Amino acid sequence: MKRRIIVGITGASGVIYGIRLLEILRQQPQLEVHLIISKEGEQKIEQETDWEVEKVKALAHVFHPNQDIGASIASGSFRTLGMILVPCSRDTLFTIANCLSDTLISRAADVVLKEKRKLALLVQETPLSSDYLKDLLAVAEMGALVFFPAPAFYTQPRTIEDVVNQTLGRVLDYFEIEYPLLPRWKEKPPKTRKRGSKKEDGRV
């Protein structure tokens, strides 16, 4: 049976992280990718990238509407490796921290936590208010991995794609999913893949 993983894209800046993650996960033949995109996430895709929303949805094996709180991934009996919210908006963080399961994204995240599976949140907001810090602490204490996409400059990134790949590689380490393009400290740099034009590959 294929291993399943859930990806959620919400309405914070940085949706290119979510799109690139979907591309990476589709290269893993043993994985079945389940995707949810919030309405605000769809708006960010249109604002920040050249990708069409429907083409982003097609990168996943299964797409679930965010309003469908009765979807398979809303049940603890539906086994997954966990969930990655990339990016995770301030509103989404609040709903998870306060156990408000009013959308499929927040419901699926709550299920992942209660089943003691892995939940990674790539948060983008800055500067951080005291309320935001309290919610970050709350989700961390609940068992989630809070991840700020801060670039590692020791890798000497030359493009936005280099920065995105390094961040996502670290997140995939948490899920024990191998990503050969992740530059590691004191290891030989990986060969970068050839890419098409900006319009073809969806880079910002």
Describe this structure in words.
The protein has a six-stranded parallel sheet, sandwiched between helices. The protein has one domain: 3-Layer(aba) Sandwich (Rossmann fold). The protein is of the alpha/beta class and 204 residues long. The longest helix is centred in the C-terminal third of the chain and has 15 residues, at 160-174. It contains eight helices and six strands; from the N terminus they run βαβααββααβαβαα.
- Helix % is 25-40%
Task: Tell me the series of helices and strands, N- to C-terminal.
Answer: EHEHHEEHHEHEHH
What share of the residues does DSSP label as strand, in percent?
15-25%
Distance between the termini: 36 Å
**What would CATH call the architecture?**
3-Layer(aba) Sandwich
What does the average pLDDT come to?
90
Runs with pLDDT <50, length 5+?
Answer: 194-204
Structural class: alpha/beta
The tally of beta strands, per DSSP, is 6
Looking at this structure, what is the CATH superfamily? Flavin prenyltransferase-like
CATH class: Alpha Beta
**Discrete helix count:** 8
Number of domains: 1
Major sheet details: 6 strands, parallel
Large-scale geometry:
globular
CATH topology: Rossmann fold
Q: What is the spatial order of strands in the main beta sheet?
A: 3-2-1-4-5-6
Rounded to an integer in angstroms, the radius of gyration calculated over CA atoms is 16 Å
What is shown here, in short?
The chain has eight helices and six strands; from the N terminus they run E-H-E-H-H-E-E-H-H-E-H-E-H-H.
